[in-house]
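Changelog note: in this version the structure field was regenerated for every chain. One regenerated record is shown below for reference.
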Amino acid sequence: MANAAVEEDIETNTNCSPTQQAIIDVPHRLFAAWDRGDAAGVAAQFTTDGHMIPSNGAYLTSRQAIAAYYQKAFAGPLKDTRMIGEPLSVRCLSNSTAVIDGLGGMLMPGDTYTDPEQVPIGQRIIVSWTAVRINGVYYMKEFQSTLVQG
């Protein structure tokens, strides 16, 4: 997908819209990779220098670090888990940058929830991420996830 040289050339020639499917597709691409247990696919949804703070508080500061983290996680505690979620808000900060807040849930093997509100406390998360558009595609630049406590 994107490489480091391209990532410096963030687009500014088209307007950001909170309803743009391209923005909303970012988490769905991540969920699809997660559901496959594809660590490289999860990491590919981030810019090369993207940062991620998953709900356990790990601090991941590159696409490479995100891939390594999820490769271990998908072989261990996150094996056969799936993700669901939906945006709560989309705010455009510029023509090529948006902040998205969302509600999601990690589904354990056998879980059949289809709505994040149904996911039990302890598996339900609230997230915030910043997406930037590069060559017509949005990628996550920053991502932070917190377990819903009650």
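Spot check on this record: The first strand starts at residue 46 and ends at 53. Strands lie at 46-53, 82-92, 97-107, 124-134, 137-147.
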